[in-house]
Amino acid sequence: MNTRNKIGFISEISAQPHIGGGVTLNKILGDNFAKIDWFCKTIHFPSEKPVVYERATSFCFPYWGFEQKLRKFLGCRLAYYFAHGEMCQNFHRKFVTKSVEAALGNELSETKILTSPNSRHAFSVIDALWRKHRFNYVTWIMDDHMVKWKSGEWVYDAQNFKLLQTHLLNARVVYVISDAMGQFYKEKFGVESHVLFSPCEMVPKPAVLNQEQGRPYRLVYFGSVGRWQNDALEFLLPSLNSGLAEIDIYTRSPELLPESFRALPTCRICEPVPPSSITQKSSEYDAMLLPVSFKDELKNMSYFNVATKFSDCIGAQIPTIIIGPEDSIMVKHAREYGAFFVIDANDPSKIEDALAKTRDPVQQTKLYGGRVRANLNLCSKLIMDDRWKIAADWLFE
Fold first, then answer.
1. Is the dihedral of CA 48, 12, 34, 99 positive or negative?
2. Which of 183, 239, 264, 351: CA 20 to 30 A from 25?
3. CA neighbor of 166 nearest in space, from 135, 189, 143, 188
């Protein structure tokens, strides 16, 4: 009889292999993904379909859907503040906690759990469940939405600081998304961690360059668009408006693209392609794009986060142009290894220079060597598998 411990996953993110954290999670877990018995998504947009897994139980908790009704009485702004205020969020956290307990009962104390929280909501749910059931867990912080950049320093409010500190100190193993986050947590909380992000499977030889003169530069972007990408993407508008370049954007969230892009004849919005097809599809273009926000309000993402797309760009057959602030961890890695062309300021001449270099065989060879070095020393599957083994040997023994 199989008496193994049950395995659970708690996070805000969907663990399905479609976007962002779910893609990264599946690449790291591989076949072990199918051994997870249940997944808990602590908060979910009401308009989205519930998350369902083929072989596992899904606990998916849409947030309250009454904001639309409140707008009739309170107006848009007041309805939003009420629906997303601390009182409503607290009620939802308690609802999620009690629902998980009701479904799993005392089984929780014997369950091995992988967590990947990034905001107060999931941290609070995990904390409440842990205090009652004292289960063992491994944590993997892919984003930290509780830390804010204020007056030149990183700041948590007192409650969030205590919540994260308790979570990190009680984890069996702590994984973080970058060296920058690992160093920060060591200084701030005294916690040792291991860096884990989406691996690069391989670095293929560069695609054959299309040397046709006079045609626009063909750019491609794969993935989400929104607050973390849009201001950097808008650096391209002069080149797109002039016809110097054109861009295809493969995304699940076209409604979040800036209006300035939607009417452009040089911008085409396309249906997303599977992660496994990105390398092949990208070979049709001159360069991939990796945009990273310059906004201080999103510095917690830019400074600490290594996006899933980073490894896609390392493993591409074409050059990548990364547009982001100089203190972004991905820009730092790009410079360290000479892996991408870097644009760190809103300067049309820098964009034009980077575009010209994408068709230069010498420059492409240099970037290929940089991607090979980055893969070897930073983000290969071998490196990530070795780090993940520390947790996998316990979770899936």
1. negative
2. 183
3. 189
The vertex-97 CA angle with 96 and 98, nearest 5°, equals: 95
Whether residue 124 contacts residue 61, with contact meaning beta carbons closer than 8 Å, is answered with: no
Residue 377 CB: number of other CB atoms within 10 A?
Answer: 11
Alpha carbon distance 259, 213 (integer Å): 31
Helix H or strand E encompassing 51? none
The two structure tokens encoding residue 342: 């870097």
Q: CA 201, 292, 353 angle in degrees (round to 5)?
A: 90
The DSSP secondary-structure symbol of 227 reads: T
Measure the CA–CA gap between 35 and 396, rounded to whole angstroms.
8
Chain segment 33-73, per-residue pLDDT in tens? 999 999 999 998 777 778 889 889 999 988 877 777 777 77
**Alpha carbon distance 371, 355 (integer Å):** 18
Taking the C-alpha atoms of residue 364 and residue 264, their distance in angstroms, rounded to an integer, is 29
The CB density around residue 218, as the number of other CB atoms within 10 Å, is 16
Task: Measure the CA–CA gap between 292 and 9, rounded to whole angstroms.
Answer: 29
Using alpha carbons, list the distances in angstroms from residue 191 to 170, 183, 185, 187, 383. 10, 9, 6, 8, 21
Per-block average pLDDT, block size 10, for the chain (397 residues)?
79 85 92 95 82 90 77 76 81 93 92 96 96 97 96 95 98 98 98 96 82 86 91 95 96 88 92 88 94 96 95 94 98 97 93 93 94 96 97 94
**One-letter amino acid for residue 226 of the chain:** G
CA–CA separation, 289 and 261 (whole Å): 15
148-150 vs 153-155, strand pairing mode: antiparallel
The structural domains of the chain, ordered by start, are: 7-197+381-395 (3.40.50.2000), 217-379 (3.40.50.2000)
